[in-house]
Amino acid sequence: MTNLILGPSKWRRGYRPSLPEWVADYLPERGRPPKGKVLSPLGVRRALVGLLERAGCDATLMELHQRRTGETYTGLFHRLVRELPVERFLLYWPYGSQRPGLDVELGFLLTRLEDGVQLDVRVLVEAGAKAAGKIGGGDFVSLEPGRRTHYYEDLIEYRCSVVEWEDYPALCNAILRHGTVDP
Amino acid sequence: MLEPLPKGLIATMSLTSCESMKGFAVEDPVAYAFSHPEAKRILRAVLEKGGQGFEEVRAQVGIEHSETFHRVVRKLAQFDLVAVRAAPGAKFRKHRIPMVLEPTAKTERLVRVLHQLDQVVVENGAIVGQRTVQELAVL
Questions:
Q1: Domain tally for chain A?
Q2: What range does the domain containing A165 cover?
Q3: In chain B, how many domains are there?
Q4: Contact A56 B105 (CB under 8 A)
Q5: Exposed e or buried b per residue across B53-74, where buried means at least 16 C-beta atoms within 10 angstroms of its C-beta
Q6: φ and ψ at B74, to 5 degrees?
Q7: Closest-CA residue in chain B for A146?
Q8: For B13, which of A142, A159, A176 is closest by C-beta distance?
Q9: Which of A158, A175, B22, B94 would you call most buried, defined as having the most Cβ atoms within 10 angstroms of its Cβ?
């Protein structure tokens, strides 16, 4: 079973989170940023792939695969889901990211969910001091209104499970548990 | 005969792989669930009756402080022992949506495996010794 880690690729202009430097240790050596440079959300997702691989689990990102001749990005996404096959989608939702391209990928999942296809999608939302969303009083509250979060919210309405993480150790622990195979 | 352990539940999180993780402490869901009385009570409530809201479960397990309850639920969700999902049919209103707690496939499997282990221990009491703590009594 392969996990596809979805999420944004860039931080919002002017925003840089305080990311622990060890996260980059899970990247292949050639992909590590220079010292002192903050990893992009894409870099974090690559590191999460590295973490899962170290734990013996299969994980990938769409960005790690090349398009075949004549293949569109849409075609690439669907081919990966079909051929790997992808059985679990882990959505990394940090505070303060740009996500226009991600909306398209979420749209592929939402279309299938709308058609009644059972998909295993887990929404991992940053819920620490800087929170993209949080549970309070038994409700999930989306905390970046006006920042095009409707499609994340749609996933939650389709009853995809929500996992809050307050810092990167918590995110890594959650990824290890959610990226492993259910029998 | 014991069922094979689900991949990643215990086996891939063995001490060897924990030690090779850099930068953070790999936490053990089984140890957490069994060493944390509130976690055990929440797991039991969710396993017995899934689909309840946060406040219903909190009232059922008798945890006074909602923050304490939420902290434990968050940890159980990170461990994939409890699924936090929108209430069936619920819609976002002003960016809020009510959530419910449900058992995961992993929880059910874990409890089944632990009960089987427990049974083996009981059946072999003469060899392994009588237990003084009934860790599984609550699940």
A1: 1
A2: 2-178
A3: 1
A4: no
A5: bbeebbebbebeeeeebbebbb
A6: -60, -45
A7: B95
A8: A176
A9: A175
pTM: 0.89
- Chain B residues touching residue A178 (CB < 8 angstroms): 80
Q: Give A10→chain B minimum CA distance, Å.
A: 23
Q: CA-CA distance, B7 to B110, in Å (whole number)?
A: 11
Does B16 reside within a domain?
no
Q: Collect all residues of chain B within an 8 Å Cβ-Cβ radius of residue A145.
A: 95
Report CB contact under 8 Å: B79, A180: no
Cβ–Cβ < 8 Å for A139, B98: yes
CATH of the domain at B112: 1.10.10.10
Determine the length of chain B. Answer: 139
Give the integer Cα–Cα distance in Å for A18 and A106.
26
Nearest chain B residue (CA) to A136: B70
Q: Is residue B73 part of a domain?
A: yes
Is the C-alpha dihedral spanning A159, A53, A104, A109 positive or negative? negative
Give B5 or A62, the one with higher predicted confidence: A62
User: What's the first-to-final CA gap in chain A, in angstroms?
Assistant: 11
- Is A15 contained in some domain? yes
Full residue range of the structural domain in which residue B74 is found: 26-128
Rounded to whole angstroms, the Cα distance separating B132 from B134 reads 7
C-alpha closest to that of A53 among A64, A38, A39, A37: A64
- Selected residue with higher pLDDT from A162 and B26: A162
Q: In this structure, what token pair is assigned to residue B43? A: 């797991």
CATH of the domain at A143: 3.40.50
* Tokens (6 digits) for A148: 């095009």
List the structure tokens of B107. Answer: 């929880």
Nearest to A139 among B9, B12, B99 (CB): B99
Whether B20 is in a domain gets the answer no
User: Do A143 and B95 count as a contact with CB atoms less than 8 A apart?
Assistant: yes
Tens-place pLDDT, residues B80-123: 999 999 999 999 999 999 999 999 988 888 778 777 777 887 78
